[in-house]
Automatic annotation (TrEMBL):
It comes from Myriangium duriaei CBS 260.36. The lineage of its organism: Eukaryota, Fungi, Dikarya, Ascomycota, Pezizomycotina. This is Stress-response A/B barrel domain-containing protein. Residues 4-102 form the Stress-response A/B barrel domain. Pfam families: Dabb. It comes from the Eukaryota. SUPFAM superfamilies: Dimeric alpha+beta barrel.
Length: 108
């Protein structure tokens, strides 16, 4: 089981154009993101959120899991595939993303 569970929410400025581009870009993301020549992201799902007043304008969500906080830090600071995604998103967001993560779980 993954030690670190992470959720990142985005407010995409032009969702009808940008979200399909994001989805296409993310199809191979987990496979392409490697550390020491191996895949290190344990799970990765992404897609548009359901239109709902509670989403506060966040219209795209990425959920990821990592074996350790070190792997997540690598993702944020060194992963070239993630750097490419961040570069792609420049100018396409209506505000900064919201990222939360946890390393202790209740339940299964």
């Amino acid at each position: 089981m993954a030690k670190i569970q992470r959720v990142t929410l985005f407010k995409v400025s032009d969702p009808s154009v940008v979200i399909p581009q994001m989805v296409e870009k993310l199809k191979t993301f987990q496979r392409e993101a490697t550390k020491d020549g191996k895949q290190y992201i344990q799970s990765y799902t992404a897609g548009p959120t359901v239109s709902d007043a509670r989403n506060q304008g966040f219209n795209f969500c990425i959920q990821s899991s990592f074996a350790s906080i070190e792997d997540m830090k690598y993702y944020d600071e060194e992963c070239q595939v993630h750097a490419g995604l961040k570069s792609f998103m420049q100018g396409k967001l209506a505000g900064p993303p919201l990222t939360v993560f946890q390393d202790e779980f209740i339940g299964q």
